[in-house]
Design brief:
alpha+beta, single chain, 7 strands, three-stranded antiparallel sheet, about 15% strand
């Protein structure tokens, strides 16, 4: 998941913190490059909109859960917060950081999450025995898993509210 939770910034739990490592190029599932490295990823300006799903389709969602500020650090309204949560803007928002921080939504809305795969490597075979870093072709590959988890969480919260339980009763 590419988002910030309480105490953990998105860029730290995805190992994309530009203050720790320069990083590798980041790509969408359709092969379009988003960033030339982690500095560019968290600069606020991507080379393309991150609006392609893990199935290679253009996402129909306009907002995406992030819980983060533009630079990938934990926002005051992180994922898992009771109330409002920071969101990014999915379509045509790859400039000025809007892809990762554009506003906030109440936590009961159903929105997708971004995801990023680990760095992929390959062995070049006998002619090239050293492993090489390969750009990440599936930056948002696990978006569906994140959406399913959020859907289950929100469904549980709705069931509690409809049964007369206070949302705070589960803490």
């Amino acid at each position: 998941m590419l988002g910030s939770t309480f105490g953990t910034s998105a860029r730290d739990h995805t190992n994309t913190n530009p203050t720790v490592e320069v990083g590798v190029q980041v790509y969408r599932p359709d092969g379009v490059r988003l960033a030339g490295g982690y500095v560019e990823l968290w600069s606020g300006n991507l080379q393309a909109a991150p609006n392609i799903t893990e199935l290679g389709m253009i996402s129909t969602h306009t907002a995406v859960w992030t819980g983060s500020y533009v630079n990938g650090t934990e926002a005051n309204w992180e994922l898992g917060n009771r109330g409002v949560v920071n969101t990014g803007q999915n379509a045509n928002a790859h400039r000025y950081g809007r892809w990762f921080h554009h506003g906030n939504q109440w936590q009961w809305y159903e929105l997708p999450l971004y995801d990023i795969s680990p760095v992929l490597t390959h062995s070049g075979g006998s002619a090239d025995p050293d492993p090489a870093t390969v750009p990440e072709p599936s930056t948002f590959l696990m978006m569906t898993i994140g959406m399913a988890g959020l859907y289950i969480f929100q469904r549980r919260r709705r069931n509690q509210c409809s049964s007369g339980l206070s949302p705070a009763a589960d803490s």
